[in-house]
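For the sake of transparency, this paper describes our internal protein records without simplification. Because each token names a local backbone shape, the row as a whole describes the fold. One such record is reproduced below, unchanged from the form in which we store it:
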Amino acid sequence: MRETQQPEVTGTDVEELPAPQGIGMAVAFDWGLAAQIFLTPITITFFNLPAEARIPGLNPVLGNVLLFVIAWPVAAGLALFGEMVRRGRNWARRIQVVANALLSVVGIVQLYGLYQSVKAGNFWPVVTEVILVIFSPLIFWRMTRPSTVRWFKSVTVAEARKRHGGAWPWLIAIWAIVGGVLQTIAAMK
């Protein structure tokens, strides 16, 4: 009888997960949208925006309170969703892909409106269009790459947090806040 020796599997022999793509952009996108939604009621309340920005037919004070009550939980939900993408939840990747595909189409449809705004001297809509026409399709494309799909299907929450931990969330948060502030200003102009 022939003896064969089976190789021992150690902790270092575990199959290396493929490098995912687009997670940072997706999380920055989600957290930036959360920042925009968080800031919108503040800007409407404290910067006395025109009547078009307020809820019609409602007492302005009650309208402002209602805006905060609705906007802040939505912003928290988007921030939590971005965290689920960061933690490698495959269901979150799927939602992210669909949302960014739809937002890319919205951005393309709005290009004529951008042209009209720029022609009239309002350049703020360029911020929105860059996000929708450049970043959304890029997030869609990178989140649908085979290596990213494989990573989301096989990664654990602990592995994802380890990979996207340390300074990573702070750097993404800075990008998200900058983008959220710019988008808030753009939406108000």
Q: What stands out?
A: The first helix runs from residue 23 to 46. Residues 21-188 form one domain.
